[in-house]
Write a structure and sequence with these properties.
This protein is mainly beta. Helices cover 9% and strands 37% of the residues. It has four helices and 33 strands.
Length: 580
């Protein structure tokens, strides 16, 4: 008999001390590098996240998910997203909708682990967003005098840091020209000043400087100094209030029992992420009926099905928790944004340039990094029957009888069951049912499958033997894969919930303009204000060369490199050049 054990062992959490409290040395903060802090609606904001340990500023490997939100001056949530963190680093792109008003905004970034700090402080970045399509209104109101005093103190602290020297001692930037013409290729060298290379992780932005109001964000030096000077950066609660996403994205929920409110603990709950590459999880509820699923990175689908498992499933109602934004009352806006006629030309020029770029996006569009194929949890133990290789039978009964030898069905009082034979062992004393899946969707009432057209089934995968998965044991697995991966279950009831969840953003591969072939883009206008955004640099060598092309927009441009070395040393470099 084949017995497969696939249990989720809970190892001791190294992020906790012996009393179960969060240790200071395993806290984390997030430094955010943005492509710009002033945006016109219709533009895209690029960001790079660095989750670092405040003790040594090295990249943190604790959290696997970061949460990013855009908030307006009235503490209204504009959007909320998740970003995957790979050993402390992640990247995201956010389209600024044309429906929001001109004003001051904040982009906040945090991990669940960060929310266990006292006062639940998050990383805040001030933004200015201008909507040229909607009449400008005042974006902020002055708070009460006490709030204003507190806000002024923070503002002064950041201002002092901004005035501190930030000449980098690790790298230097060298550009082959400080004055270039339109559509010219420039060569940027990033040289290490140390005997060894400054290997680490960095992000590079090259953008036009224009005459628009802006907010100066903290660079990596200022971020490190500001956090070390503020108690909240390293002040933690005595106990865990928010579950850290140590192994991946967490989806939580609750079950209730209509007949007995106490019968909600130790109940098995399944989550299916149906599709071509499906995901499937089973967990147990705690004493309060709460459950938590830890999702794999792939498949990154948004449609899920959650259901209570068991013969008494109809007694239960299942709910998935909605993602809750950060407590917005914690955010403070201290000044007003008043646009004058002095900005009119700059706003018009940038808005027109953005509209032109959006019009030609199909020619110069970014792409999304392809996800790796998700492997079924029972792989490679399955035996597969691709039905197209066999004689076609109209019914599932005939297909099972004539093709899939390891599977058999039983019928009693018009109720069917599907089972798996194990030719090596007599499982008559093993009472657990067979796990039946269709495109990753758990099927508890298999009657619906006997009415399903067999011609729609691409293959049947069978795993014989006792199979332990999570907290449950099954007498084998039968997994059906449909030709279109579009199976819809007939299950109904409060125990069965179809839902759409927010998933982390996929990694973007950015379009990089190249005029090496002069004729290819000769008739295509180029009004890029952002000449280059490269969020994942490692700078492995002592001298690293990056090339890029200027656009049709003349003016002064800024090169900005931010990041941290492997030793946790912050790196911040800024240089300018001109395009005529």
């Amino acid at each position: 008999m084949l017995i497969v054990i696939n249990t989720l062992a809970t190892a001791q959490n190294s992020s906790l001390n012996k009393n179960g409290f969060i240790s200071r040395s395993t806290s984390e903060n997030i430094f955010v590098h943005l492509s710009t802090s002033t945006l016109i609606t219709g533009e895209t904001l690029h960001c790079k996240l660095y989750a670092v340990n405040p003790e040594n500023n090295k990249l943190s490997s604790i959290s696997k998910i970061a949460h990013v939100e855009l908030i307006d001056s009235e503490n209204n949530l504009i959007f909320m997203n998740k970003i995957y963190l790979d050993n402390g680093k992640g990247q995201g792109d956010f389209f600024i909708p044309t429906t929001i008003n001109t004003g001051n905004y904040k982009l906040i970034a945090y991990t669940n682990w960060m929310l266990n700090k006292k006062d639940s402080k998050v990383s805040e970045i001030d933004l200015v967003i201008i909507n040229p399509y909607i009449k400008s209104v005042k974006s902020n109101s002055i708070k009460d005098s006490n709030s204003q005093k507190n806000e002024t103190k923070v503002s002064e602290t950041k201002s002092d840091l901004a005035l501190s020297p930030t000449k980098d001692q690790t790298f230097v930037i060298e550009l082959n020209k400080i004055s270039a013409i339109k559509r010219e290729q420039l060569s940027l060298k990033i040289k290490s000043l140390n005997a060894i290379s400054g290997k680490g992780n960095y992000s590079l932005s090259i953008k036009k400087i224009d005459n628009l109001p802006s907010k100066k964000p903290l660079n990596s030096y200022e971020f490190v100094k500001y956090n070390s000077n503020n108690k909240w950066a390293n002040t933690i609660n005595d106990t865990i209030l928010f579950i850290p996403e140590l192994r991946g994205e967490i989806i939580s929920g609750t079950i209730t029992n209509s007949k007995d409110s106490k019968q909600i603990s130790d109940k098995s709950v399944a989550l299916s992420i149906p599709g071509t590459d499906f995901g499937f999880k089973i967990v147990k509820t705690n004493q309060n009926g709460k459950f938590n699923f830890i999702l794999d990175k792939n498949p990154n689908y948004t449609n899920v099905v959650a259901q209570v498992i068991g013969d008494d499933k109809n007694d239960y109602t299942i709910e998935i928790d909605k993602t809750k934004p950060y407590t917005l009352s914690e955010l403070k806006f201290t000044d007003e944004l008043n646009l004058t006629s002095d900005y009119k030309n700059s706003i018009e020029e940038r808005s027109i340039a953005n509209q032109i770029e959006n019009a030609y996006y199909s020619i110069k569009k970014d792409s999304v990094e392809a996800n790796s194929k998700a492997v079924s949890f029972f792989n490679p133990l399955q035996k597969e029957y691709i039905l197209g290789d066999y004689t076609s039978f109209p019914s599932l009964k005939e297909t099972i009888t004539e093709v899939v030898k390891e599977v058999y069905y039983r019928e009693e009082d018009k109720k069917y069951s599907l089972n798996v034979r194990d030719i090596n062992y007599d499982l008559k004393y093993f009472s657990e049912p067979t796990l039946v899946l269709v495109d990753g969707l758990l099927i508890q009432n298999v009657n619906e499958l006997f009415d399903y057209k067999t011609e729609n089934i691409y293959k049947i995968s069978v795993v014989p033997g006792v199979y332990f998965y999570g907290p449950k044991a099954f007498n084998g697995i039968i997994s059906f894969t449909t030709k279109r991966n579009d199976y819809v279950s007939k299950e109904t009831g409060n125990y069965f919930l179809k839902s759409e969840i927010q998933r982390p953003l996929n990694k973007t591969i950015y379009f990089k303009q190249d005029y090496t072939d002069g004729d290819k883009y000769n008739r295509i206008p180029d009004y890029r204000y952002q000449l280059l955004w490269q969020p994942d640099l490692t700078l492995e060598n002592k001298e690293n060369t990056i090339s890029f092309f200027t656009s049709d927009v003349s003016g002064e441009y800024e090169i900005n490199l931010e990041g941290f070395t492997q030793e946790g040393i912050p790196v911040s470099l800024r240089e300018t050049f001109e395009v005529k």
